[in-house]
Amino acid sequence: MEKTLFTLGVVTGVHGLKGFLKVRSFAGSLETFKSGLEMVVRRSGKADECYTILKASPHKKGILMQFSGVDRDAAETFVGAELLVDRRLLPEPEDDAYFWEDLIGLKVTDRTLGFLGTIDSIMETGSNDVFVVKNKDKGLKNKEFLIPGLASVVIGVDLERGEMTVDLPEGL
């Protein structure tokens, strides 16, 4: 089942007096956070609310973002909130590229070793993404694999079946 809403970032703090939010982005590009885009803000204990982006710009390792109608006081209540978007408002990823949220939870199988676990999270390293694969089964309980997101390692991704096939290099 395709998810309609998915998380593009998390509010980590506020900046300045005009209600700018510091955002840790999960998107590959700042262009994703274009002016006029409607986002859903999900805060613990509150109903989801929709806000429209006025401005977004790079800031250190994240993004500074301002929503329409949100002042400094209101912005402070957003810290820790998830920022979600309707995927139908975004362009589809290129061939052999995927939204991170679609990859989280996939079962990972190595050609030689067999089932390794499921993708728990993804780390951005600069040169390539790294899939954090955890296994909670008896034999490999709490075993964690760090798998580079390289074409030479990731052999196939089947979102319909919820599977990723890899060919781990020796020693990994």
TrEMBL record:
Name this protein carries in UniProt: Ribosome maturation factor RimM
GO MF term set: ribosome binding
UniProt cross-references to Pfam families, sorted A to Z: PRC_RimM (PF24986), RimM (PF01782)
Annotated localization: Cytoplasm
Entry function: An accessory protein needed during the final step in the assembly of 30S ribosomal subunit, possibly for assembly of the head region. Essential for efficient processing of 16S rRNA. May be needed both before and after RbfA during the maturation of 16S rRNA. It has affinity for free ribosomal 30S subunits but not for 70S ribosomes.
Encoding gene, per UniProt annotation: rimM
Listed HAMAP family: Ribosome_mat_RimM (MF_00014)
Domain Ribosome maturation factor RimM PRC barrel intervals: 100-172
Species the sequence originates in: Desulforapulum autotrophicum (strain ATCC 43914 / DSM 3382 / VKM B-1955 / HRM2) (Desulfobacterium autotrophicum)
UniProt family annotation: Belongs to the RimM family.
